[in-house]
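ingest -> validate -> predict -> emit
validate: passed (alphabet ok, no gaps, 180 aa)
predict: started
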Amino acid sequence: MLKGQKIFLLPIERHDIITLNEWIKKGLDFSLISPSSLFALNLDELENWYNSLIYNPKIRVFVIRNIEHKTPIGLVELNNIDWKNKNAEIGIFIAYENLRNKGLGSDTLEVIINYSFNELNLFKLYAKIAEDNSPSIKLFEKFNFKKEAVLRKNIFKNNKYIDLLIYGLLKEEFALNNNK
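emit:
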């Protein structure tokens, strides 16, 4: 278990797909975890997705749980883990709008960054963020992620193309920021 001030993270387990299925049925936007997320639409597809994670060394998915209520409130994932070059893509999803902007995303990001750099010994994390996702941009910039690239008109959303922003954080930048 990875623990923060307001949340704790547990590796996703088979029983968690029921919660994910409920979130999908409610129409929650999983593109917030990664703009290119193509999330499964039914329980069988979720089961297949979960099974694909079990022995995949390039993916780590955690369920975010509220410390107070111990209930699942979202997901955080490390994806495309490149063990040779020591980098990974990071994505966070807080499922309930009423829980956003309450420090849970910040707490989650701090916990997963520490885990990535100190436990997994990664050197770099990067996030892909749609240009219209200003809360995520603000969150990642708060943790010293730097905009590294703009993939112009890369996502088709709401009948128009929008840019995809790539933000990156190096281990040394995080260490510097934490020592202040």
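The chain has a mean pLDDT of 90.
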